[in-house]
Amino acid sequence: MPNERPFSAGDEGEEDAAPARPTKSKAKRASDRGGPDKRERILRAAIRVFARKGFYATRVSEIAKAAGVADGTIYLYFKNKDDVLVSIFEDRISKLIKVLRSELEQGGTFDEKFRRVIELQLGLLEGQRDLAEVVTVNLRQSSRLLKQYATPLFTEYLEVIAGLVAQGQREGVVRPDLNPRILARALWGALDGVAVTWALGGGGESGQLHRAASQVASVFLEGVRRNADRA
Amino acid sequence: MPNERPFSAGDEGEEDAAPARPTKSKAKRASDRGGPDKRERILRAAIRVFARKGFYATRVSEIAKAAGVADGTIYLYFKNKDDVLVSIFEDRISKLIKVLRSELEQGGTFDEKFRRVIELQLGLLEGQRDLAEVVTVNLRQSSRLLKQYATPLFTEYLEVIAGLVAQGQREGVVRPDLNPRILARALWGALDGVAVTWALGGGGESGQLHRAASQVASVFLEGVRRNADRA
Amino acid sequence: MPNERPFSAGDEGEEDAAPARPTKSKAKRASDRGGPDKRERILRAAIRVFARKGFYATRVSEIAKAAGVADGTIYLYFKNKDDVLVSIFEDRISKLIKVLRSELEQGGTFDEKFRRVIELQLGLLEGQRDLAEVVTVNLRQSSRLLKQYATPLFTEYLEVIAGLVAQGQREGVVRPDLNPRILARALWGALDGVAVTWALGGGGESGQLHRAASQVASVFLEGVRRNADRA
Amino acid sequence: MPNERPFSAGDEGEEDAAPARPTKSKAKRASDRGGPDKRERILRAAIRVFARKGFYATRVSEIAKAAGVADGTIYLYFKNKDDVLVSIFEDRISKLIKVLRSELEQGGTFDEKFRRVIELQLGLLEGQRDLAEVVTVNLRQSSRLLKQYATPLFTEYLEVIAGLVAQGQREGVVRPDLNPRILARALWGALDGVAVTWALGGGGESGQLHRAASQVASVFLEGVRRNADRA
DNA sequence: AATGAATGAGAATTCATTCAT
DNA sequence: CATGAATGAATTCTCATTCAT
């Protein structure tokens, strides 16, 4: 199976991150100088700093410094500070959704797919503690942001999972009395909870997160299974 | 089942909330002059405003206005704005823990207790959309706060749930392969996720939240059960 | 000769043990109990606190606490915080002037009187480091105060010294080319400078201050003397 | 005699005042754009405003306005309001000390040097009533400031004068019974007293200050002289 | 495009003073 | 007279954003 961790923050394969405004005239291919372009550099710096200090406690100048650019440069690539946070979410989560969709199309049993979903969501986090913290903690800092921007994307993400559950119900392997959407939310919450604890606890060894994920998967799978006993 | 929803914002059982400075020594029952005491009034106003605007976007003057006191009065009862948020958390969550503990001591089957825990956690939230939003969303706004103050209390809360799971394992009704702490975290996360969605979605009808809780309970109970099939 | 330190600030035993809630209705003549009346208590407390923290850094509530009265009580005896400082100056300096005048009327040679003036001014300070610091340092904190209130009193004080110098000139023992007022100012300044250094240095042993004063007196006396050499 | 009044507020010899943060590395001579650099402009404005209203009564916004900069700009060059006052003291007094030292190295009789010291101290003030008032009056406003920052510099200044007196004693022209340090303090106090009176009196004609200084010098010189009469 | 000095609106907090008890 | 909780005007300082270079 392909895909292994498609969201690593730092790999070079970022050239699909459409450089918003700059990129004036010179054909500035990402490989131009081997390094990521400035927008990406700012985004990564922001993830790092937001994770350490939180969105509100982070100064724009700190992001700039971490990215190695001048304060004003931030505003050439982002409308304002909020926009940086939203962009992080959009860039990363929309990628997750995309991968999630293509994974689920690749067939397999319900159990396999379900576990795959969990792996992916935590794969997003594993080895990327900063992004994990930003996505799970920081995004909640502004309910305005959360409501305006995040919800649609988040809902989309949940729908993918809910779709999987619904499919399982149609296939007769999942209890029909469950509401797929609620299930999806609960799953997200459970994984998020585990990840937050892991992240706030210091990130520690990634194996721990994996084991935790496995237990959560197991509980959910057993919990949703339509079995003879209960029919 | 005894005492439903012990966390209603306005009940009289508040006498343990020691007012900071003011409070003449004269026994001043809450009903002394018709209104609850000032600290409590400020706390409630803060819950309302934080829920609507978020912690950072809320001005101290707005809390004061909502509480019907002068700006400076806030500082007679709280060290600063942060302290108001922390106090909300402490006042409410510590009460939840207390009730949780006493509930679990009252006996019953594992299933009954497990469902009771869930009911209590959501009972905290249901009908108190504002508090729900503050506790689940706002508290995350300051990782400093989260780490310094919330974590110990939160951990304590999780330990109560983990204890229940461990007991279930000792009694042979819960799968022994599960880590009680991870379970507790996942459960909190799942319920939190459901509650946040409900809260952000507008709170809606409280029956919805109950039904959702019931499904989550059901999934978890089935998921953790030690049954013949798998032995 | 009389004089011994007529300005003792706190001889009454300064045990700041707050005298409960002060004398409610009982006829409260000042001599009633041998103790200072409330106004005096506040004044002394203020001297103590102003000396330690400076006028601006001192909170009215701190004075109240040090005086063992309620904040509001201050305002029964003084118009406002400024008035407390001004009152300290007026109470103490006007006493100094009175004593100075009566001393100078008692005859003696110019040298004797001159030295007497210096002793008195330092007598005000010696053993009363707090008052010294308030008078020499704190009073300058508000140029408004200094100009409005202090200057007249201060000028009056200087005039007494200038009068002594002028008398010395009439008697032919002081150089006639000197401006008595300038002399008076310089003398005040020199003594003040010595006292401030002593006060800020920690007050130390009072003998030091006396020895310093003696040298200053000696220099000034030699410096102003009309002698054969220069005639 | 060389370099009269080396402390005029506006001369170009300011290049040793290292600007805090701004200041591009490009050599930016003071005359770069016609005006003195911003730090200096703020310092001068502060001297003006502090002198008129006193340190505590001066609002940061007033300094900014007087300097023709935005409020926030102050904080690009100074840590806070206190720092502005301290900087005034440090900039100006340290310059005075420097000049004083070089003057005293230039030889001359004791009398000449002594008068030179007085001229310099008052030369600092003459024509600069504002600075005089700030240095003599305002600096005393915060005993914290006074003790932390001013004392070391002030002591250094006094040591220079004390050194001159000690030298006079070694040369046999000054009474050996005098303590040089006390003398230095008394002289500073006397000049300060004269200057304060002059400044508070309205500054008036500078000739007055000169005459006063001359009289003080004369009194001290006569007072400290070792003459045959007393040997 | 990039810079970073300058801006100035905005917010938390303090504390002298009042006044109902 | 005395109290001290409450008040709210006033002030420092921060920091996102702009714009001349």
TrEMBL record, chains A, B, C, D:
Keywords: DNA-binding, Transcription, Transcription regulation. It comes from the Bacteria. Residues 1-37 are annotated as: Disordered. Residues 36-96 form the HTH tetR-type domain. Residues 59-78 bind DNA. Transmembrane segments: none annotated. GO terms for molecular function: DNA-binding transcription factor activity; transcription cis-regulatory region binding. This is Fatty acid degradation regulator YsiA, TetR family. It comes from Sandaracinus amylolyticus. The lineage of its organism: Bacteria, Pseudomonadati, Myxococcota, Polyangia, Polyangiales.
